[in-house]
């Protein structure tokens, strides 16, 4: 599917530091040095012209980004095309489903043969067409998938209707996280004021598309039960993630549509951990992920320079934070 030139490019880029990436043009007429130089100048210019903002600083008070909604609205009918724009997400299930399952089983010791997650209530934030919602439901969990794109929710509902095993176990709702949080607050006033409703929250390949990460973290903490788990997969903010995640994946190899990602919205594991800890979470693990466009497969890696998965736990009222240094993942 890809030329040998791109094969050597992808494998070579990941095995080197970003400095080597920036200076390597190989046999191609494409100049990595020019890309990196232009990127650096642009970042320096932006830093001089605009006041520095952290990922947690926002006045939007909503996680919804209208531009992101428009992007995914146009792709709503393509979620279940494994050879299409979301093929890499289909393949990612080989890593993220066991990652979620195994970490939940470490916390919840009950054993349900064939349905290991039975009895657990999971919220899938930004579920899209249900690519991750369905396999979690098949593991026995009661899963609610939410997404602000109504057409994506319609696609998810239609696809789930073909599997009787998912009946009454998987539900979908077209809404934002903050809208659901407001609904859950009303439920909490009736049942147990202040108590969360979910045992786990999953936000896979979502946070890099949100308008307000502070609001996201706050709402996750609000709807999650004390001791509940938060699972996130996202993209680190490094030179390498820009080179491979945007230049190569979007502009050269077209693995995902051009414009899918905005590098300014990427976040490092350190920044994400800081944000979560300020909202009552303790990060348990951070693990790097690597996508091979030649095989179409994902694998775990020690480097978090591009993609990574994170597992955090909401602290209980009687649990004091235990500061620790997580794997920074700030490779350049």
What does this entry look like structurally?
The chain is an alpha/beta fold and 332 residues long. It has 11 helices and 8 strands. It has helices at 4-14, 18-23, 32-49, 66-73, 87-107, 133-138, 150-160, 177-190, 213-223, 239-252, 269-277; strands at residues 121-125, 142-147, 170-174, 198-204, 224-235, 281-292, 297-301, 307-314. It has an 8-stranded mixed β-sheet. Strand 2, helix 7 and strand 3 (170-174) form a beta-alpha-beta unit. It starts with a helix and ends in an 18-residue tail after the last strand.
Describe the structure using short key phrases.
alpha/beta; disordered N terminus; disordered C terminus; eight-stranded mixed β-sheet; 332 residues
A few lines on this structure:
With 332 residues, the protein is an alpha/beta fold. Helices cover 39% and strands 18% of the residues.
Q: How many H/I helices?
A: 11
The percentage helix is 25-40%
Residue windows where pLDDT falls under 50 for at least 5 positions:
1-33, 43-59, 188-195, 320-332
Mean pLDDT comes to: 81
Secondary structure layout:
Elements: H1 4-14, H2 18-23, H3 32-49, H4 66-73, H5 87-107, E1 121-125, H6 133-138, E2 142-147, H7 150-160, E3 170-174, H8 177-190, E4 198-204, H9 213-223, E5 224-235, H10 239-252, H11 269-277, E6 281-292, E7 297-301, E8 307-314
Parallel strand pairs: 1-2, 1-4, 2-3, 4-5
Antiparallel strand pairs: 5-8, 6-7, 6-8
């Amino acid at each position: 599917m890809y030329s040998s030139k791109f094969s050597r490019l992808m494998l070579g880029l990941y095995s080197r530091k970003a400095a080597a990436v920036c200076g390597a043009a190989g046999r191609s007429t494409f100049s990595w040095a020019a890309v990196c130089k232009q990127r650096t100048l642009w970042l320096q210019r932006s830093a001089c012209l605009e006041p520095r903002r952290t990922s947690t600083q926002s006045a939007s008070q909503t996680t919804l980004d209208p531009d992101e909604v428009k992007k995914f609205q146009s792709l709503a009918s393509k979620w279940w095309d494994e050879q299409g724009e979301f093929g890499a997400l289909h393949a990612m299930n080989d890593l993220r489903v066991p990652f979620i399952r195994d970490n939940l089983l470490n916390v919840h010791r009950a054993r349900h043969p064939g349905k290991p997650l039975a009895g657990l209530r999971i919220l899938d934030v930004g579920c899209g067409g249900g690519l991750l919602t369905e396999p979690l439901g098949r593991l026995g969990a009661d899963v609610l998938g939410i997404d602000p794109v109504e057409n994506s929710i319609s696609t998810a509902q239609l696809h789930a209707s073909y599997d009787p095993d998912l009946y009454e176990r998987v539900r979908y709702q077209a809404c934002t996280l903050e809208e659901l949080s407001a609904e859950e607050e009303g439920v909490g006033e009736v049942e147990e004021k202040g108590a969360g409703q979910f045992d786990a929250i999953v936000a896979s390949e979502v946070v890099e598309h949100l308008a307000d990460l502070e609001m996201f973290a706050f709402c996750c903490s609000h709807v999650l039960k004390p001791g509940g788990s938060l699972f996130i997969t996202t993209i680190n903010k490094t030179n390498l993630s820009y080179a491979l995640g945007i230049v190569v994946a979007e502009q050269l190899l077209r693995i995902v549509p051009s414009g899918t990602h905005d590098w300014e919205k990427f976040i490092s594991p350190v920044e994400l951990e800081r944000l979560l800890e300020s909202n009552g979470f303790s990060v348990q693990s951070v693990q790097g992920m690597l996508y091979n466009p030649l095989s179409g497969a994902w694998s775990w890696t020690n480097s978090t320079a591009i993609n990574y998965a994170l597992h955090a736990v909401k602290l209980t009222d009687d649990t004091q934070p235990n500061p620790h240094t997580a794997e920074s993942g700030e490779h350049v």
